[in-house]
Write a structure and sequence with these properties.
By secondary structure, the chain is an alpha+beta fold. It is about 50% helix and about 10% strand. The chain has a 6-stranded antiparallel sheet. A hairpin with a 5-residue loop joins β9 and β10 (about 155-160). α15 packs across α25.
Length: about 800
């Protein structure tokens, strides 16, 4: 791409103002640019399209923009974030987070090679970033030193995911096939790129960091490719005697010619390198640390009440990698638990969330207002809090659970005051920073007592004593279980401990989360300190440690704790955790009332109003579904009308402004599902290629599997109950599919696909033609018994779906 800036006519590409050129290569040019809309510096890469004909340029641009939509979702401390992508002057460009530092290629040119521990640490960081990307089905395909940025603290950041490919494989177009010295043998030979191909490339990069040169390099690019396929690689220790036999083996495994002989994924290679850097104590064949973690997971699995929690948390954290629409999968995971749904809706309607729009009646609407990650994080927190605080363990454990929750609230408030963009992410990072301590207390009670005794005897903190007793610290336990539960890598990274020294300014978002989470936990411990003098000393220590790096001052720390106290007072009513949270609230009340915590010459803040803050159930009368349910999951008639009416009003409000079509359709389906208590509800939309109405969205038992199996209603075929609805635009309510006058009109394909006993059908008609259909069913006969006003509101919801389809195209 020839930029207008290069020709001296303009200094802009789209909304980006070019500042200076940062680098140039065969694939394009990278500029430092300023985003004029958001006022931030970015790295803008223009892609070289010289030599492509117009058709090839169009295809290249389409591919890059498609991939950009996938890659922009990646967030990890070791990845450079892709912000935007577009087209300018007939060629694509990509906009990345601007990271100050030097590339690994520049570092290697200056130093020749790196000390093995430093090289391994860099490789681990890159692999953790790649593991995050692979977890979302994104491969890099061009891992090389030039695409790895090193920050001032030597943190590796992987760049240039703009040419990444989706993990279904496939060849790259000519010119974007990667750099020869780092290309895997299977790819060189024409095979599909696969996860193990990125592992090979990283192995080659690690080899170069250790030796100062890649494993092979021919006189030409083609000669290099032939050597990769045919020549055996020399062990790095032959070029660098400081590389020991164990590291030799690790590198050579990554460089195996056959993909199946390498590490199966970047995460496994990272674990192997981590064990090399910090080997577990001798005496345990699996290693004491690994043995302790596996023992803990095994004990957790055998607790009668734990497997269900573990499965739910894992399912919720897996939804971002779902092949289906993640929002629908998350909604379904939450809606399966009626009590969880009720508590979530109460919490998002609590006073703290009023700024997002009160009166949220559906999980779909909550996701639309608060965001996908916020709802997922809140839900996960609720699950763990309920599980641990409802235990039969001692009151001290319950107070620790409450302290973890309070730490999350402090982080949320502190993040908002410091301008961190994702306060809810800070909440869960801070809360789960105590996960290891909580799980050890809950499941390894005797070991926890030994840790406390050792800490007291030697004057250590408990984390150091935990290393002695368990072979790993509390943070390591928490991170291990979090990985087992499929938590995002950014949250896992935030659980890593910080040193005792004052922290420096965080370079990027994940670092900020880690610092805020640590500061919030320290502030929680400050509030819980016994005397005003101890609290004052702790607060002074916190501000010294986090002041320069995170901007934590005594003033904003006090303000965050005060607002956290008010929020916790409110949320504890929703959580049903008054007894567990009471001790923390009392300490927080003492904190606010104590003169030693207020600035001299100012009165201490009053607490009467905060202590009386409660949730007003009248603000959302339909949120608590549990008290209105009858056996089998059907809502009582009075509650049906309330939920349906609230849903109609919600959708009316949404349709009045800008809206996303899928968001509206999800709210409609969820309203029907919760109000009527269907076993499952599906939205089918017209599929012109199959001349059928195919299921696209759904909630309830087995809805995901039914959709993935290709559930579709033919629009041409023999007469049956479905053609009666879609052909005539008739709403049908069938209380018994096996009734004598109905049985013969139920097609066999349907009976094989869905185990339903009764159903309702609401066709979506536009100009006399069926463009969709809302389907709801149950496995019990004679259960619907709709009142006229209920049926009218269900039809109103159907009509709103038709209106949304018309307006949304």
């Amino acid at each position: 791409m020839r930029t207008e800036a290069a020709e001296g006519r303009s200094q802009r590409i789209g909304r980006f103002e070019l500042v200076r050129e940062l680098g140039r290569g065969a694939q394009g040019t990278v500029f430092l640019a300023r985003d004029t809309h958001l006022g931030r510096e970015v790295a803008l890469k223009t892609v070289n399209v010289e030599g492509y004909d117009p058709g090839e340029r169009t295809e290249l641009t389409r591919m890059l923009l498609d991939e950009a939509r996938i890659v922009s979702k990646l967030q990890h401390p070791n990845l450079v974030t892709l912000y935007d992508a577009g087209e300018h002057a007939g060629a694509p460009y990509l906009v990345f987070e601007y990271v100050e530092g030097t590339t690994l290629a520049q570092a290697l040119r200056e130093k020749g090679s790196l000390p093995p521990p430093q090289a391994v640490a860099i490789a681990i960081g890159v692999l953790r970033g790649l593991a995050c990307a692979h977890g979302m089905h994104v491969l890099h395909r061009d891992i090389k030193p030039g695409n790895i940025m090193l920050t001032s603290d030597n943190t590796p950041r992987v760049m240039d995911f703009g040419i990444a490919c989706h993990a279904t494989g496939g060849k790259a177009p000519e010119g974007l096939a990667g750099t020869p010295s780092y290309m895997a043998p299977e790819y060189v030979q024409g095979g599909a790129f696969q996860p193990a191909s990125d592992v090979f490339a990283l192995g080659a990069v690690l080899y170069e960091m250790l030796t100062g040169r890649p494993p092979v390099k021919g006189s030409t690019a083609q000669a290099t490719l032939q050597l990769i396929v045919k020549q055996d690689f020399e062990r790095p220790s032959r070029a660098n005697p400081k590389v020991d036999e164990q590291l030799d083996a690790l590198v050579m495994k990554a460089l195996a010619k056959r993909p199946e002989d390498r590490y199966p994924d970047p995460g496994r290679m990272a674990e192997a390198l981590e064990r090399y850097l910090a080997p577990p104590p001798e005496g345990d064949p699996e290693g004491a640390a690994g043995g302790t973690l596996e023992f803990l997971l095994r004990r957790m699995r055998h607790k009668s009440d734990f497997p269900a929690l573990s499965d739910t948390v894992s399912a919720i954290n897996r939804v971002t990698a779902s092949d289906r629409e993640p929002v629908s999968v998350l909604c379904n995971a939450i809606l399966k638990d009626v009590a969880l749904t009720s508590k979530l809706l109460k919490l998002v309607n609590a006073a703290h969330f009023k700024q997002h729009g009160g009166g949220i009646r559906t999980v779909s609407r909550a996701i639309g207002i608060l965001g996908f990650d916020s709802v997922r994080n809140i839900t996960t927190s609720l699950l763990l809090f309920d599980h641990l605080q409802n235990s039969t363990q001692a009151a001290t454990l319950k107070e620790e659970v409450a302290a973890a929750y309070f730490s999350g609230v402090v982080a949320r408030e502190l993040a908002a005051k410091l301008g961190l963009k994702n306060a809810e992410e800070a909440f869960i990072c801070a809360m789960f920073r105590r996960l290891g301590r909580l799980l050890v207390s809950f499941y390894l009670h005797e070991e926890k007592e030994a840790i406390v005794r050792l800490a007291q005897a030697r004057g250590w903190d408990e984390s150091r004593a935990a290393h002695e007793v368990l072979g790993l610290g509390y943070e390591d336990v928490g991170m291990g279980v979090a990985r087992h539960w499929n938590f995002p890598e950014a949250i896992i990274a935030s659980m890593r401990p910080l040193g005792e020294e004052a922290v420096g300014r965080a370079a990027f978002e994940a670092d900020k989360l880690r610092v805020i989470a640590a500061a919030a936990n320290d502030l929680c411990d400050t509030v819980r300190a016994g005397t005003p003098k101890e609290r004052a000393a702790r607060l002074d220590a916190v501000t010294r440690k986090f002041g320069a790096g995170a901007g934590v001052t005594q003033m904003n720390a006090r303000e965050a704790i005060k607002s956290s106290f008010e929020a916790l007072s409110s949320e504890s009513a929703v959580l049903g955790a008054g007894a567990a949270i009471a001790p923390v609230l009392e300490r927080a009340k003492d904190w606010n009332a104590a003169g030693s915590t207020a600035p001299q010459g100012q009165p201490a803040p009053a607490n009467d109003e905060a202590t009386q803050t409660v949730i007003n159930a009248a603000q959302f009368p339909d949120a608590d579904v549990t008290q209105h349910l009858q056996p089998g999951g059907f809502a009582a008639a009075a509650n049906r009308s309330a939920v349906l009416s609230a849903g109609v009003q919600d959708i009316t409000n949404v349709l009045a402004g800008d809206f996303q079509l899928n968001d509206v359709l999800r709210i409609i389906l969820e309203t029907m599902y919760r109000a009527i208590g269907f076993k499952r509800v599906l939205l089918c939309v017209r599929d012109p290629q199959r001349n059928a109405l195919r299921a696209r969205l759904g909630f309830g038992d087995g809805a995901d599997a039914i959709i993935q199996a290709g559930f579709a209603l033919p629009l041409a075929g023999p007469p049956d109950i479905f053609s009666a609805a879609t052909g005539q635009g008739a709403d049908l309510c069938i209380e018994d599919l096996d009734a004598s006058n109905i049985r013969e009109h139920v097609p066999q394909w349907f009976r094989k696909a869905v185990p339903a006993r009764a159903l309702v059908l609401f066709p979506l008609m536009v100009k006399g033609r069926a463009v969709g259909l809302i389907y709801g069913d149950t496995d019990r006969t004679g259960s619907f018994n709709f009142k006229p006003e209920e049926l009218n509101m269900l039809r109103t919801l159907r009509n709103q779906a038709v209106l949304a389809l018309k307006q949304g195209g």
